[in-house]
């Protein structure tokens, strides 16, 4: 999931970065915000219930849960993994479509 999601996202960002140079700053800021919105350095139990329910829509939470459950032997949340899988499929399909439609224009920039 991680490799396919990163591949799809990169296929989407390459044409955008070629035509819009400010995408680099936006992606950096978005990655930092996503890092703080994903319970990597803090446990989910510290979050208020009103905030914790929104973790389901964060695709990185399912990926992080899959890694954690592999190491700890706990059961994985299928809803979170399904959200991650859906996001990966969307990134891969949209990224492939955008890249294939802009491939000719990208060759001209090289």
Structural notes for this entry:
There is one protein chain. This protein is mostly helical. The protein has helices spanning 2-19, 23-37, 49-52, 59-72, 78-109. Helices cover 75% and strands 0% of the residues. Helix 1 runs parallel beside helix 5 and helix 4 crosses helix 5.
Fold topology:
Elements lengths: L1 H18 L3 H15 L11 H4 L6 H14 L5 H32 L1
What is the subunit organization of this protein? single chain
Question: Got a strand count?
Answer: 0
User: In what range is the share of β-strand residues?
Assistant: under 5%
- CA-atom Rg in angstroms: 16 Å
Q: Note the main sheet.
A: none
What's the shape?
Answer: elongated
> What's the helix count?
5
Average pLDDT metric? 90
Tell me the structural class. mainly alpha
List the secondary-structure elements in sequence, H or E: HHHHH
Q: What are the low-pLDDT stretches, counting only 5+ consecutive residues below 50?
A: none
